[in-house]
Design brief:
With about 350 residues, the protein is α/β, with parallel strands linked by helices. About 35% of the residues lie in helices and about 20% in strands. The chain has two domains: about 260 residues, Aldolase class I (TIM Barrel, Alpha-Beta Barrel); about 60 residues, Type Iii Antifreeze Protein Isoform Hplc 12 (Alpha-Beta Complex).
Length: about 350
């Protein structure tokens, strides 16, 4: 399957790149701020606004043993503080639809899937951490909705297993996103050429989930064949929270979308023929034979009485062997563009 559709948006082979702006946990429990971010991302031309739906209790152990006693795990405290309020989901989905962008969320537990299904979401995202959580994969696959799967930290065997689990539920609407699970990753570790291998191995849309604050890796991924690009977004990298520091700002998202669409225009096709604009320049840019002096009727054409100059004309330099040694059939004035009627 080379193409998938979410709502009215198709992506994959021959389609514009699907651009996902992830707010994720960067909501800071401020609904007005989130709506403002949706407004900006929609105005920039992002296709999808993505969130994360989870219960901390269903994601990480609440207590860990410290000096012989169980205490609240600080990682649980952090994730608990980052939960997207359940009561916001419907309002945010409706707001995204109002702004003509797709609402999507990474579902990290069964209850979150149930909530998203009740709202009529059009697709699901699986985070890299849950690639091997097969029960959840099966549960989401059973919805019959498209599934975008991040494959950070995964071996090819684990990717193949995840795909097989999804397909056993009768769901073949799968896209894969190359991802490096560092925040942000060192550029040397990003390994964008892996996108080309994934496209060779799997008959599905392939993309890149980017955690770099620079936009260059995302644009390079696009040029290497990525059909989906996902970036975390924020109002400011100075805000408190674990995902703000590796997110791009709304101005940077705006620039990314413009650059992506510009790169797509420049990508062209596998084959190449000069375009209309180039054809119009050929005559001005290419060389042809000109008389460098007055050439008398019957005089031999030699390198001493012609030059190869712009603009182009009838006799191109590649035909020098045929022209040189011929005789002028009439007087050829200096600066005249020589034609075959001028020689015999």
């Amino acid at each position: 399957m080379k193409t998938l559709t979410i709502g009215n948006r198709s992506f994959g082979e021959g389609c514009p790149c699907l651009i996902i702006a992830e707010i994720g946990s960067n909501h800071n429990h401020d609904l007005a701020m989130v709506k403002s971010m949706i407004d900006s991302a929609a105005h920039s031309g992002a296709d999808v606004i993505k969130f994360q739906s989870f219960h901390a209790d269903e994601l990480i152990v609440k207590k860990s043993k410290v000096q012989g006693r169980y205490e609240i795990d600080p990682r649980w405290k952090l994730l608990n503080s980052l939960e997207l309020p359940r009561s916001w989901h419907k309002e945010l989905l409706e707001y995204c639809r109002k702004r003509n962008v797709i609402f999507m969320s990474s579902a990290w537990d069964f209850a979150s899937v149930d909530l998203l299904e009740s709202l009529g979401v059009e697709a699901y995202k699986i985070g890299s951490s849950d690639l091997t959580y097969h029960p959840l994969l099966k549960y989401i696959a059973a919805t019959g909705k498209p599934i975008l799967v991040s494959i950070g930290m995964a071996t090819l065997d684990q990717i193949n297993e995840a795909i097989e689990v999804i397909r056993t539920e009768g769901n073949d609407q799968i896209a894969l996103l190359h991802c490096i699970v560092n925040y942000p990753p060192e550029l040397e570790s990003v390994n964008l050429r892996y996108i080309q291998k994934l496209r060779q191995l799997y008959d599905c849309p392939v993309g890149y989930s980017d955690h770099n604050v620079e936009n260059a890796p995302a644009l390079a991924a696009l040029a290497l064949g990525a059909q989906i690009l996902e970036k975390h977004i924020t109002l400011s990298r100075e805000l408190t929270g674990p995902d703000h520091a590796h997110a791009i700002t709304l101005d940077e998202l705006d620039q990314l979308v413009r650059d992506v669409r510009a790169v797509e225009k420049a990508m062209g096709r596998f084959d190449y023929q000069p375009g209309k604009a180039e054809f119009e320049r050929i005559k001005r840019a290419r060389r042809s034979a000109y008389a460098s002096v007055d050439i008398e009727n019957g005089e031999e054409i030699t390198i001493r009485n012609i030059q190869w100059l712009r603009p182009g004309g009838v006799i191109e330099p590649k035909e020098a062997g045929r022209l040189l040694g011929a005789q002028a059939s009439r007087k050829i004035e200096k600066y005249k563009n020589i034609t075959w009627d001028d020689v015999e």
